[in-house]
Amino acid sequence: MTSKRTRSLAAADQAFVWHPFTQMNDWLSDDPLIIDAADGFDLIDTEGRRYLDGVSSLWVSVHGHRVPEIDDAIRAQLDRVAHSTLLGLGGAPSIELAERLVALAPPGITKVFFSEAGAAAVEVGLKMAFGYWQHRGVTTKRTFLALEEAYHGDTLGAVSVGGMQMFHDAYRPLLFDVFRVPSPYVSDEASLARAEEILRDHAAEICAFVLEPLVQGAAGMLTAQPGYLRKVRELCDRYDVLLICDEVATGIGRTGTFFACEQEDVSPDILVCGKGLSGGYLPIAATMTTQAVFDAFLAPYDAFKTFFHGHTYTGNALACAAAIANLDLMAARSTVDGVREREAVLAKMLEPLEGNPHVYEIRQRGLMVGIDLRASGETFYDTAERVGHRVILEARKRGVIIRPLSDVIVLMPPLAIPIDELQRLARVTIESIDAVTA
Ligand SMILES: Cc1ncc(COP(=O)(O)O)c(C=O)c1O
């Protein structure tokens, strides 16, 4: 029997809240699960039931929930100031965080611009790249090179460089045109060959090549071959085009190095991160860049080269304090090394799925996993069957929260998840897939 409080919250949710990426028709006909609290790696609903947070609350949680060190850092910051603007003023936590991020970033990155969401940070990166060329007098460079299947967030610039038909087609009339190359998941050689062809003919029109390094997350954890990113960097250098690495999903340790581009010794011109930066506590994202990009905006005020961009809560003190505490803990606990250990444990645990004829492929980099379910061979399930959705409902019955991308079951546990909990996540996932696909 559901409690009166749960029923009343559910009714109010259905009356007033519009949920993101949710067909509200379905939502309104279901009983919503309402999270009320958390404890370590578990979320707790309004009935007191516990669920393992198997997708890190949308890919953000690092050390779990209610981490004493991060809670204390936010409380201490509250006793100083919750927010002051970075427009015309410095703020102590944002200064410390910027310095820390530059130390962690690949060589050549020297400047940090803060915002509150990955999409906003991508917009900042696109505008920085565009402005860089314009201010240097290269006014023909007005568009971008991007990957098919890319996802960079939901604002219109990010959607323009995004390449996911299902999400983006409806808004096509609002978007700017970009040059597009095949996903390296399909073929890294074809992707590179097409990129080179486009660059040979159109480099003079292209500000930057923007991509998610190593893994195209929202497209279903589509992995690139090792070496692809390095070759992209070489192409960008050869044709004088900037490289923007969107590490909103892959950054902050997720793939087993602090930034994914480290794995190929690549320094991008612009590096975007967000999600796990505050350990999953508060919204903060960062667009980092080189001295050369920064310098292109330096001029007398009346030359109007100022970077005219900013968000009200840019560099919010509480979010920066949470991020610093998160980075401190990651360093003290060698969290990134722990990701590599957990990567191997999870891969091993998921091996039994290889015998399931409906598992087309398991794609993994670090603690970023996509289990691609298909009807048979390469044939997709009928969308109406909602196989991915049914699998996550089975997992929920077994006390685990996961969220699919269509019929790709995503596992994105908090980076510091205890090994036994990671094993439980894998076991429940296998049982849930078997229950639906049998
Ligand atoms: C690679 C990538 N870029 C950008 C974003 C957008 O981030 P946000 O949802 O914080 O706007 C996401 C979100 O999943 C992402 O995966």
Secondary-structure map with pairings?
Layout: H1 4-16, H2 24-29, E1 35-39, E2 42-45, E3 50-53, H3 56-59, H4 68-78, H5 92-104, E4 109-115, H6 118-135, E5 143-147, H7 156-161, H8 165-168, E6 179-181, H9 188-202, E7 206-211, E8 215-216, E9 222-223, H10 228-239, E10 242-246, E11 270-273, E12 285-290, H11 291-295, H12 317-332, H13 335-350, E13 359-365, E14 368-373, H14 387-397, E15 400-401, E16 403-405, E17 408-411, H15 419-437
Parallel strand pairs: 3-15, 5-6, 5-7, 7-10, 10-11
Antiparallel strand pairs: 1-2, 2-3, 4-12, 8-9, 11-12, 13-14, 14-17, 16-17
Helix pairs in contact: 4-12, 5-12, 9-10, 13-15, 14-15
Bound molecules: pyridoxal-5'-phosphate.
What can you tell me about this protein's structure?
The protein folds into 2 domains: 33-63 and 334-437, Aspartate Aminotransferase, domain 1 (Alpha-Beta Complex), CATH 3.90.1150; 70-332, Type I PLP-dependent aspartate aminotransferase-like (Major domain) (Aspartate Aminotransferase, domain 2, 3-Layer(aba) Sandwich), CATH 3.40.640.10. It is 39% helix and 17% strand. The protein contains 15 helices and 17 strands. It has helices at residues 4-16, 24-29, 56-59, 68-78, 92-104, 118-135, 156-161, 165-168, 188-202, 228-239, 291-295, 317-332, 335-350, 387-397, 419-437, and strands at 35-39, 42-45, 50-53, 109-115, 143-147, 179-181, 206-211, 215-216, 222-223, 242-246, 270-273, 285-290, 359-365, 368-373, 400-401, 403-405, 408-411. A hairpin with a 2-residue loop joins strand 13 (359-365) and strand 14. Helix 9 (188-202) packs parallel to helix 10 (228-239). The longest helix is centred in the last third of the chain and has 19 residues, at 419-437. The two termini are 31 Å apart. The model has no long low-confidence stretch (mean pLDDT 97). Residues 117-119, 122, 151-153, 212, 217-218, 246, 248-249, 274 line the site of pyridoxal-5'-phosphate. Pyridoxal-5'-phosphate binds at residues 117-119, 122, 151-153, 212, 217-218, 246, 248-249, 274.
